[in-house]
Amino acid sequence: MKILITAATDSELLTAQAAAAVSGHVVTLAVTGIGMVATAYHTARWLLDESFDLVVNVGIAGSFSERFPVGSVVCPVKEYFGDSGVQTRAGFSSLFDEQLLGANTFPFVDGALFYQLPAVMASAGGLPFPPATGVTLQMATGSQARVEELQARFCPDIETMEGAAFFYVCLSEDVPFVALRAISNKVEERNKAAWDIPLAMRSLQAAVRKLLSLFV
């Protein structure tokens, strides 16, 4: 198989390097940069230049859910752009709320981006890790008030800065894709002392190895 593996940072992508080298597949590794804009631009550039059997996005994430503690790994299956909209006196109003964009404008469905299980994943047994709903933000959450606002609006399991952008590009280009996210922290009042990035990176490395071993 010809596989493109992307990540926002060098350290996240490094988790895929060893697994890719012994996978038996033709694997391209690409750092896209942090955030939605960089992710969309660099992912699209790769897809315009080459064809791949599968595109994989790997990285770490914050968790809203007790079901997904630090060190666990999930497969996002539904993504929201969490801060694309308008700030009003009443609070945040999305592009869909403001009727600036139709909630079912391709590739959105009811205002969300949904994972489409590609044939190559189905034949490999489906998702290798629990499914999760993600919210993607340009500014990471660091206050309890913001946590509660996001939970009320999106019911997310995880938060990232790239997930929805990756979904948007892959769905728009109609390419098979899957994302893996290892939990490094709870989404709460910002407290980096409670984060465990090394554990998340080890979990992500094992997850990439497991994913690539599914395909023969």
Q: Briefly, what is this?
A:
This protein is of the alpha/beta class. It has 6 helices and 10 strands; from the N terminus they run E-H-E-H-E-E-E-E-E-H-E-H-E-H-E-H. The mean pLDDT is 95.
Give a verbal description of the structure.
The strands form 2 sheets. The chain has a 5-stranded mixed barrel with strand order 3-9-8-4-10. The protein has helices spanning 10-21, 36-49, 119-123, 144-154, 163-173, 197-213; strands at residues 2-7, 26-31, 54-63, 73-81, 85-88, 91-94, 113-114, 131-136, 158-160, 177-186. Helix 1 (10-21) runs parallel beside helix 6 and helix 2 (36-49) packs parallel to helix 5. The chain is an alpha/beta fold and 216 residues long. Helix 4 (144-154) links the parallel strand 8 and strand 9 (158-160). The mean pLDDT is 95. It has a single domain (2-213), classed as 3-Layer(aba) Sandwich (Rossmann fold), CATH 3.40.50.
Question: Which key phrases capture this entry?
Answer:
Rossmann fold, five-stranded mixed beta barrel, alpha/beta, single chain, two-stranded antiparallel ribbon, 216 residues
CATH architecture: 3-Layer(aba) Sandwich
* Mean pLDDT across residues: 95
Enumerate how many helices there are, as a single number: 6
Structural class: alpha/beta
Could you state the oligomeric state of the chains shown? single chain
Q: Give start-end ranges of low-pLDDT stretches.
A: none
CATH topology term: Rossmann fold
Give the ordered list of helices and strands. EHEHEEEEEHEHEHEH
Domain module tally: 1
